[in-house]
Design brief:
Elements lengths: L1 E6 L13 E4 L4 E3 L8 H4 L4 E5 L5 H4 L6 H5 L5 E6 L1 H11 L12 E4 L4 E2 L5 E7 L5 E7 L4 E5 L9 H4 L4 E5 L7 H7 L4 H11 L3 E5 L13 H7 L3 E3 L5 E3 L1
Parallel strand pairs: 3-4, 4-5, 5-6, 10-11, 11-12, 12-13
Antiparallel strand pairs: 1-2, 1-14, 2-3, 7-8, 8-9, 9-10
């Protein structure tokens, strides 16, 4: 199973990282559609796309507008947007308002109310997360593989069982250790909080994502401290292709 990290940053794009997008190219499944969504068409191996949105903050949805041209040119025939009802409404009323984006995009919208069964492509389950305005965590399970995507949340152990034992956990890590108060205020997490969770949940690999865009250095979160707690930790970078 291959996952492409289209965008691994948060808040706004910089020269190193675009904002959120994680694509299973063979399955046609995308988690979030931030500024990195322009990269979808170069990787996608199907003509249908299911997009699962964590929430409707701009850094996670702005890239929906970038799919207009691939759809118009029939490179992508169908796009299904899965999200909470309030996020779908926000997208329709604001992001795609005629004053902001004057062309209709023929998305199919699906309100998430529980598990989404994609047949041979797996089952997608959700978990509410703590973040201003709310957010959803995702887990997808196949016969012998599993993956979880947790972004934009203040660290709590409510979702520990939700991610337990997954082959790969991508978890937001906007702040390094020492910024716990700011993380709590803004609805984000710090390095040791995330790595302790991964250890307790006995996940196999942990990728740290949604990196603070003001940090463009090679070690924005303190990787040595992270790996001291959970050795199988890495910082995801844009265009990484992860096999698991």
């Amino acid at each position: 199973m291959k996952l492409v990290c289209l965008g691994t940053g948060g808040y706004f794009p910089n020269d190193r990282r675009h904002t959120a997008g994680y694509l299973f190219p063979e399955l046609g499944i995308l988690f979030d559609a931030g500024s990195s969504a322009y990269r979808v068409i170069d990787c996608l191996q199907t003509d249908e796309l299911d997009i699962f949105l964590s929430h409707a903050h701009l850094d996670h949805i702005v890239g929906l507008t970038f799919l207009l041209v691939p759809m118009h040119r029939k490179k992508i025939k169908t796009v299904r947007v899965h999200a909470r009802a309030e996020d779908i409404l926000a997208i329709k009323q604001h992001l795609l308002a005629s004053q902001i984006f004057p062309v209709d995009i023929p998305f199919e919208y699906h309100e998430i109310t529980g598990t989404v069964d994609l047949g041979k492509r797996g089952k997608v389950s959700t978990m509410p997360l703590r973040h201003p305005g709310g957010s959803l965590g995702y887990r997808i399970d196949w016969l012998d593989k599993s993956f979880a995507y947790i972004t934009d949340t203040s660290w709590v152990n409510d979702y520990l069982e939700f991610v337990r034992g997954v082959d790969l956990l991508l978890h937001e890590c906007y702040f390094p250790d020492g910024a716990e108060d700011l993380a709590e205020l803004t609805g984000h997490s710090c390095t040791s909080q995330v790595t302790k969770l991964a250890k307790q949940a006995e996940v196999k690999h942990l990728g740290l994502i949604h990196i603070d865009p003001f940090r463009t250095d090679d070690d924005p979160i303190g990787i040595d401290a992270a790996q001291a707690i959970f050795p199988n930790t890495f910082v995801a970078e844009d265009n990484d292709e992860l096999d698991f």
